[in-house]
């Protein structure tokens, strides 16, 4: 709950590609893969493999703050 209060709900921005068209366009090769896509639909970050707390805190959260202008 504290996380949501501080950073908001990150799941609000999750997209679903039912037909798989975007996967080809993004070059997705397998699972698990995580992407950060900005407001201009540019892939800003890609990670292949499982996420760790360190990866989230050191890479994803700073990038999201940069993209969305939150501290």
Set down the secondary structure blueprint.
Elements: H1 2-7, H2 21-26, E1 33-37, E2 43-48, H3 53-68
Antiparallel strand pairs: 1-2
Mean pLDDT: 85
Cα distance spanning the termini = 18 Å
Q: Give the helix tally.
A: 3
Could you name the ranges where pLDDT drops below 50 across 5 or more consecutive residues? none
**Rg calc:** 13 Å
Strand content of the residues, in percent? Answer: 15-25%
Order of helices and strands: HHEEH
The largest beta-sheet arranges its strands as 1-2
Structural class: alpha+beta
- Major β-sheet profile: 2 strands, antiparallel
Number of strands: 2
Shape call = globular
The percentage helix is 25-40%
Question: Can you walk through the features of this model?
Answer:
It is a single chain. This protein is of the alpha+beta class and 71 residues long. The protein is 39% helix and 15% strand. It has helices at residues 2-7, 21-26, 53-68; strands at 33-37, 43-48. Strands 1-2 form a two-stranded antiparallel ribbon. Strand 1 and strand 2 (43-48) form a beta hairpin. The mean pLDDT is 85.
């Amino acid at each position: 709950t504290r996380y949501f209060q501080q950073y908001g709900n990150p799941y609000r921005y999750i997209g679903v590609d039912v037909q798989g068209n975007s996967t080809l366009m993004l070059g997705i090769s397998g699972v698990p893969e995580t992407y950060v896509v900005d407001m201009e639909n540019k892939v800003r970050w890609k990670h292949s493999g499982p996420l760790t707390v360190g990866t989230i805190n050191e890479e994803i959260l700073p990038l999201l703050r940069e993209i969305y202008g939150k501290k």
